[in-house]
Amino acid sequence: MNSSEWCKLAYWELSERVGPLFPVEPPAVNVFGDVPHPDGLNLETLAQHSFSPPESSVQKTRCKIGLGVTLSREGDRIWVYNRSDHPVFVNSPTLHDCPTPTRLPPDHCLCVFDRLEACRLNSHAHTQAGPVDPNSLRISFAKGWGPNYSRREITSCPCWLEILLAPCRYPCRLTSHAPTQACPVDPNSLRISFPKRWGPNYSRCEITSSACG
Predict the structure, then answer these.
(1) pLDDT tens for each residue of 170-208
(2) How far apart are alpha carbons 145 and 50 in whole angstroms?
(3) Residue pair 31/71 in contact by the 8 Å Cβ criterion
(4) Which end of the chain has a smaller Cβ tally under 10 Å, C or N?
(5) Where do runs of H (alpha helix) occur along the chain?
(6) What 3-state class would DSSP assign to 124?
(7) What positions does the domain MH2 occupy (predicted)?
């Protein structure tokens, strides 16, 4: 990703990736189906890149996408606004019911990613059932998946979106447990003084007071 992109969007139909990745630079982007719209990612147009005829379940779900969703980056958080007439199902490492997707009804919005929460989970070695990509969000249109649904995996959902976050935009900067140092510390640097020692138990408090270092 270049420095101005905060994510890329990948569109999937069942287990097949359809079309190229869609880079996102503006703070908000619309993802929609076969409806007139001035800008954003048109999934109906993207579906023309599919190498095989769609299954009937895919065709039916495409018709339900409509105005789709709006993804909005607001500071350290990412929101999803459901603008369609059908629910969408969202999976994110910072939603508390992960890996079970969260149902988002029409005309509702949800904070689907929080950088501070992601850092907190990483710092506590939070465990999940199955592989979890801390920089990936997934949205299924109209169909849910998981232990409470007939579709156990998202790759069984007819139409779904993968949001690939740019890691450099959402780094974990946890410093609460970092030790306080009297001077800048380079984690990739070692220092040796000949033949004098330094530190709180010696007359020389810093290595810069040693004759040769």
Answers:
(1) 555 444 443 434 444 444 455 565 666 666 555 565 555
(2) 23
(3) yes
(4) C
(5) 43-46, 56-65, 115-123
(6) coil
(7) 6-191
Tokens of 118: 């992601």
Predicted TM-score (pTM) of this structure: 0.74
C-alpha 95/C-alpha 100 separation (Å) is 9
Residues 58 and 159: beta-carbon distance below 8 Å: yes
Residue 15 in contact with residue 47, Cβ under 8 Å? no
DSSP string, 63-110: HHHTT-EEEEEETTEEEEEE-SSS-EEEE-TTSTTTTSPEEE-TT-EE
In Å, how far from its chain's centre is CA 189?
A: 33
Each residue's pLDDT tens digit, 68-126: 999 999 999 999 999 999 999 999 988 875 568 999 999 999 999 998 888 777 766 54
Q: In angstroms, rounded to a whole number, what is the distance separating the alpha carbons of residues 124 and 132?
A: 15
Best CA proximity match to 52, nearest among 16, 20, 22, 21 = 16
Q: How far, in Å, CA of 18 to CA of 47, rounded?
A: 6
CA triple 171-112-103, angle to 5 deg: 155
